[in-house]
Amino acid sequence: MQTDVLVIGGGLAGLTAAIAARRAGAEVLLVCKRRPGRSGNTLIAAGNLTSLPEDDSVEGLAIDTFGGGREIADPTLVRTLAEGAAEAVDFLQGCGVRLLRVDGRLQARRVPGHSRARTIFPELGAVPVQTAGLTLTLPLLAEARRLGVRFAEGLMVARLARNGERVAGALALDGSGGWLALRARATILATGGGGRLYAGSNNTRDITGDGYALALEAGAALRDMEFIQFHPAMGLTPVRIILPTTLFGDGAVLRNRYGERFLLNSVTGGEPVAGRDEMSQAIDRELRAGKGIGEGVYLDLSQIPADLAATRYAPLWALLRRRGCDPAQNMPTVGLAVHFFMGGMVIDSHGGSTVPGLYGAGEVCGGVHGANRLGGNALLEAVVFGRRAGARAAAERTETAGVFDPPPAGNGPWTVEELTGLRAALRQLLWRHAGVIRSAEGLAAGLAQWRELDDTCRSWRLAEPVPLFLETSLMLRSARCILLAAQARLESRGAHCREDYPMLDDEWRGHLRIESGVGEGEPVVRFVPQELPE
Predict the structure, then answer these.
(1) Which of helix, strand or coil describes residue 5?
(2) Which end of the chain is more exposed for a tag (fewer CB within 10 A), N or C?
(3) For 173-197, what is the mean pLDDT?
């Protein structure tokens, strides 16, 4: 299949990139593992979107984002994010996305970490709160189809194709086991993060970290892979969905089994000002001390104003009440879940990677958020950098042939049960050894277990069912990057918490860059000092 621009991924970032490239005049092919617009993490996103109200400023948003990321994000990318906020909202509305308004005005709320109210939300209408992201993706999917973007769903991308130093497309496997050469002048990775590398995650099942391994194998550099955001409000009872962190800015508080508002012990000001990293680490400590409720803690919603309960939170309140929980009188329980990867492929302000012909947008990229992401900035990032990557990729004019040889067939045989067991062991490994709080001993044990799993997978090589095997191989390669980066950073910063190095250390103000090793050797990890914004 031949195209000008190949987009890999069917969530918000991928759809935005495809629309931008098509509007710029390029032929566009979008491929994804499942269904475009109905897969990926955008599907289950709460819908929090950072905007730039008229009384706000680019400088204010940039300062909050850089500070929230513990001052190690790429200043140029942070500035690009902030500068693109207003146009991102216009873009979404121009594609048919309906945003929540009260008395004709967008309802902006303040989310912890932001210095002012700038987070807006889509209108849910008939869309269930559990799949609120459809309010974003379905209008964009319709717009992409209207523009003539081609789609191919159910494709597992096994590797990116190279032509010398350039990426020239990708090699994919279809549902019938046939190999497809996807030839393109420019390729955009929009594969999302890697939440399903962990045992506890709210991510959709297709988010297995493919993009990190694909980029690294193609020669692109990664950064910040040690920074995994655990969401502090994963609903446990009576509903198992992510609850929006806007609740904390509107009066919700966390309480342990004794009713104590424990976050005040570690964060002055508590929930309205605490970052997701601080909340998650505080919850983890309560659980370790035996002060939790099962695997979680209480979420006290009794102080949420009635007008917000009747507007912004009406669908959530209705869902809770259907499950027998009156938010004004009963406290649901929430726990921890892997939610977002701050790290990923190194990009410039137009989404360009360190390899010509390869671009990225959304969670597969690193550098925008640093050590911690502020609520609402993920959807904003997907739109801002999706638009920029799509427009720049459409301008590529280099004709490339590329090498599309499929991986060699292997020995086998092995069963689906064996492979499923290996994947479960990998997820438990990361949850246990690269979780909320880490240590040198735990990370060393994790790497030792990883090598055993990798040896097992390599002994099977390539065998049926091939898509599941290929996905598992990519999972293993991405997991190793997380473990190596977490082992290398000898401090606690943002979402990376080391119990053996509990303090933030200015000597580690910078990012860890990961590049592919020689042949199939271990990736090379090196520290790059931070360039402070002007």
Answers:
(1) strand
(2) C
(3) 93
